[in-house]
Amino acid sequence: MVLAFYGYLGISIATLSTLGLMLGVYAFRLKPTRSRLQRDLKRLASVIPLGEFLQKDYAAPSVVQYYASTTFRDYKLLALATGSIAMHSLLKPARSMPYRCGHLKQLLYVVAQMGDAVHGGKVLEVGFGKGANSIFLADLFPNANFLGIDVVEEHVSYANDYGSTRGLTNVAFTLDDASTPSAKTMAEGPFDLIFGVESFCHLDSEEKLTGFLRFARQCLKPNGRLVIVDGYRSASFENEPEEVQHAMMLAESGFRIRAMPSKPSWQLMASTARLTLVDDVDLTPEALAFWTQGWKVAHVLLLLLPWAVRAYVASSLKHAETGANFVSVATTAYAMALGSAVYGVLVFKNGS
Questions:
Q1: Taking residues 13-27, what's their average pLDDT?
Q2: Mind telling me which residue stretches traverse the membrane in this protein (predicted)?
Q3: CA distance 196 to 83
Q4: CA nearest to 212, candidates 197, 201, 224, 223
Q5: What span, in angstroms and rounded, lies between the C-alpha atoms of 155 and 161?
Q6: How far is 273 from 276, CA to CA, in rounded Å?
């Protein structure tokens, strides 16, 4: 009997190992194609009410609820993937480089624009999340002063505690909205540099974008820099096939965004605000590699365990926000790979 038990156990382990290997090979070869997108959209619709996502009626409370529900739970998976608590994409260069800094590369574009700020200037981060970006920079540049603003109270509390435990006195975080900044934030200027990493995408209307750019124009020093590291709707978005547009619209909605500004939109409106384009860097291939890994997981879950996804998302309001994250993970790679989204850096300076 004992031998039979161990025999069955061995067969079970071998079977599971074989299935796992087959699944791994299948996932490794997966690529986000248009035909797979069409099938995944149908599978998504069977587990999550996508019609609610496409209504696009998100306001500030929607964004706050999303992050309050997901920052300290769902984004732990991102921390595991990147090796950092920073809440942004891990960039994966297409070529071999002497240093591996995928989760820091976004900040290198910020460091390149620090200028005189390193000698006692002021830097503002918009949408700091857990505060990792400003805390890293504050440690790197002890003579500079860093202020972060965010619309989520839980972010403010966490980031201030995180900075304090590291003994940093040149960084602080406060509650504010960059599209309608308070007099207190305005008074903290002028700033040598304003930056955001995957946060300006929440300036998802012409009104919000105009309000922020007016603030940036007023509160940046002459020749001060604005650095935007983010995702954008592609310039060709309106000409893409319907399902490819839907992939981007669903990715936006999962993050509680109505419509990410495109790079041309940023450039046009920044020019109107008398901010001059300094640099435009495309990092789409590097971001796509990271988002493709997440998509593979989502794709397999939709294929094998749709009932589990459906039950989890329907079980509570917080889990529904996790479902929103799942929608974004399931569609962002499609949007980037098929042409309705791009990822990169825009740098503007104050003045001509």
A1: 50
A2: 6-28, 297-314, 326-348
A3: 20
A4: 201
A5: 10
A6: 9
| Bigger pLDDT: 74 vs 54 | 74
Is the separation of the CB atoms in 103 and 80 below 8 Å? no
**CA atoms of 109 and 15, how far apart (whole Å):** 48
According to DSSP, the residues that pair with 312 across neighbouring strands are none
Token digits of residue 231: 């995702």
Residue 30: strand, helix, or coil: coil
Nearest to 337 by CA among 50, 119, 40, 14: 40
Q: How many Å apart are CA 230 and CA 89, to the nearest integer?
A: 9
Cβ burial, residue 75 (10 Å; 0-12/13-18/19+): middle
pLDDT band at 11 (very low <50, low <70, confident <90, very high): low
What is the model's pLDDT at position 80?
79
Checking if the pLDDT of 108 tops 90, the result is yes
How many Å apart are CA 266 and CA 255, to the nearest integer? Answer: 20
CATH number of this structure's domain 29-92+123-350, picked from the four choices 3.30.43.10, 3.40.50.720, 3.30.450.40, 3.40.50.150: 3.40.50.150
Q: What percent of the chain stands above pLDDT 90?
A: 75
Q: Give, in degrees to the nearest 5, the angle at Cα 296 between 294 and 300.
A: 125
What pLDDT, on the 0 to 100 scale, is given for residue 28?
Answer: 57
- Is-cis flag, bond preceding 261, omega within 30? no
Instruction: Report CA 288 to chain centroid distance, whole Å.
Output: 12
Closest to 330 (Cα-Cα) out of 284, 298, 289: 298
- DSSP assignment, residue 315? T
Instruction: Report residue 192 as tokens.
Output: 């040598």
Strands 122-126 and 145-150: parallel
C-alpha dist (Å) from residue 15 to 19, 21, 55, 274: 6, 10, 45, 65
Q: Which amino acid is at 146?
A: F
